[in-house]
## 1
Amino acid sequence: MAVTQAIPITRHPYADGSYKKMLIDGKWVDAASGKKFETRNPATGELLATVAEGDAEDINRAVAAARRAFEGPWSKVKPFERQALLLKLADLVEKNFEELSQLDTLDMGAPISRTRGNKLRVLGMLRYYAGQATALHGETIENSLPGDIFSYTLKEPVGVVGAIIPWNGPLGASVWKIGPAIATGCTVILKPAEEAPLTSLRLAELAMEAGIPPGVVNVVTGYGETAGAALASHPGVDKVAFTGSHVTGQSIVRASAGNLKRVSLELGGKSPDIVFADADLDAAVPGAAMAVFANSGQICSAGTRLFVEHQVYDEFVGRVAEFGKKLQVGNGLDPNTQIGPLVSEQQMERVSGYLDIGRKEGAKALAGGARLTNVQDNMRIAQEEIFGPVISAISFKDSDELIQRANATTFGLGSGVWTRDVSKAHRVAKALRAGSVWVNCYQAMDPAVPFGGYKMSGYGRESGKQHLEEYLNVKAVWIKTG
Ligand code: NAI
Ligand code: MG
């Protein structure tokens, strides 16, 4: 892979090395403990900002504020007004999009071409949720009881929501949690990842500017084991919406047991990407490569297990390796960069560690160790989520056996199929145990189309009408009329 020159960092107002407070009840506050932590640019190691280090005490304050807002003024705000607030926020995000893209790039390293490229989806999400705010409704349901008794349902906001997000796409992840909360009339405490908290803080500032009332959107910055764990176990939180690793997801479920709060989980994956010999290989080569190399592999639904039909295996993996070698690696702020750094030293060590494990288990690295071939289904590199630019290439002959092998993972988030045969595409799409199947494309996402996991990739759906349901309770009302 060619390496571009690092370019000088523009001093962003949120990344000029200064101290950033967190947002509780519409006010910018220090952590109760007075503690702070650093966030750095992974491309250069440069200090971007120090941030308030919230913990259990700050979560208590934020939950109290969110509860007051939920039961007080926010409960009187009509759907039409919630819609207007979301549309206003969307306009502000649009106006400041370049700044928000740069902030994501600075804080977690993704290429600027990628963070800018999120514009359509981020704005689309805010405006989609705005639309849904006035489209929520229960049903009148005819019952079979004797006499005259009328029944209907109400959809009510679930209440105070704790939202915990990872670092791999801070702006998109923040909007994905805050948007449905505002649309449904919930209040939210957002806990960004400690590796990349800055965009969430700036977004919260825009939410205040849009006129979203105090306590409706709170952001508590801090570490997972302290602030995150306190939010997940808090008896005053009605629901946790979590995105991150399955190990943390499991601890969130355990922590939720105290008050049996609702939980939705968008966890990791080890998604199969299947290339049949009859596929348009010119499209499948970049498609399969970018299914993993995009965001340096730090995408939950990355197509990291590449199954290639044996007749074209050698040609195909060779071409993917060539494609990988040509990608421009560099500082995310350089518009030519296609692959940015991994988010942290720790993540770099994790990914390199997996490459060593792969070699020890007998896989062979092509293209600078960035891609492994001769991978067997049961190797750890073919089973565990690596979250780096690592593809495991696996050859297959028998199509029936292929399905079984593709599904032989504890995860079930994304999956890809490349073929020109329409019936084969339908058959395989039906057989794959995953929340999304992409045929002749990879990673397509839209605010109106549900996204989520099977098996250990989690439960609940984000985007689409199902997403709003995650933030709503259903109440049945019976009225005896005669
Ligand atoms: P993580 O799941 O630990 O972190 C995600 C979020 O959860 C962060 O905000 C973190 O502060 C919070 N958190 C951590 N421990 C917590 C706890 N006990 N209670 C409540 N919240 C907690 O993921 P991490 O450590 O950043 O990355 C490790 C691996 O996880 C990655 O290499 C990747 O394989 C996977 N991952 C998957 C993601 C996805 O989108 N599905 C996103 C991030 C990581
Ligand atoms: Mg950072």
## 2
Amino acid sequence: MSREELAALLDGEPRFRTDQLWRGLWQRGTWPRDMTDLPSGLREQLGEVLVPALEEVARSTAADGRTTKWLWALHDGARVESVLMVYPDRATVCVSSQAGCAMKCSFCATGQAGFARHLSAGEIIEQVVNARRAALPRRLGNVVFMGMGEPLANYERTWEAVRGLHDHLGFSARRITLSTVGVVPGIRRLAHEALPVNLAVSLHAARDELREKIVPLNRRYPLSVLMSACAEYLGAKNRRLSFEWALIDGVNDTARDAAELAELALPLGAHVNVIPLNPTPGYPGRGTPAGGVGQFRDHLVHLGVNATVRANRGTDIDAACGQLAARSASAAGARSPAGRP
Ligand code: SAH
């Protein structure tokens, strides 16, 4: 809720109550019942109106304790997930922007499950607030929109959430990353926004004929169009652009693929994040073995591209990229914390 909406809710109360409630919700991330600076009657009253948007259905933590995944139920029963990754001195949360996804990338578990609905800005922000609390005493440093859904296909609400994170939770734009499969009109709109967030583009293939097969949206926005939208964003925002590349054994991990990728990345100064594909039930491809991953990275570096191999975190709790497919409540609850059945 906005400050104005909270003020309306507190009609008849002293004005400072709005500030107390605002600080409790946004800055401390507490619920009304825990706001001990409010009179108990008011706490109770507010507690009935200001109900959480996300109900925790299941939470699993990877064996190494560094990755936590939540399955949330929304008020209408839709399910989404978020993942918290902690590092020695900071933490990053990966949030969902939609329940399901309509983009149908062949290798992605969410894409295989299909689209349910858009998330509201509040449903996105609450994932961050909950993760921020769970990350303590570490500071939640970064928010990445790399969970379920295509953020730029839910543009208005995603942007409202970004504004909330920036204006009220104190995240600077450089600590927020929107990841897109290549929704060109969305990228163009981003170029005109005031906040220069980081842009990640899930490329995975650098020639149309291959990309069409794994990322169907490429038929609508082929690489030449996508690259010019990226250039437009860079021109407007002067932010680092990154390309995501899930290495699929024998599909997009050859020297030819590296050369084609370099041709796209170099003129834009894009940073490439390479990660071996996580196998998903609906896709026959496998991740490139470690040796091939190193070779691909070396090829890129040799061609002058900045490339990082990303660690695959949380595989034992299905929290790895593209594995965020919500299961039934009972199945999720029954999953052993040790991992896959
Ligand atoms: N729709 C947005 C954000 C969500 S997907 C996008 O496409 O960018 C987040 C990232 O996970 C994307 O780069 C996506 O391509 C990648 N991904 C999906 N499934 C994967 C898998 N099985 N293995 C590795 N990466 C995967």
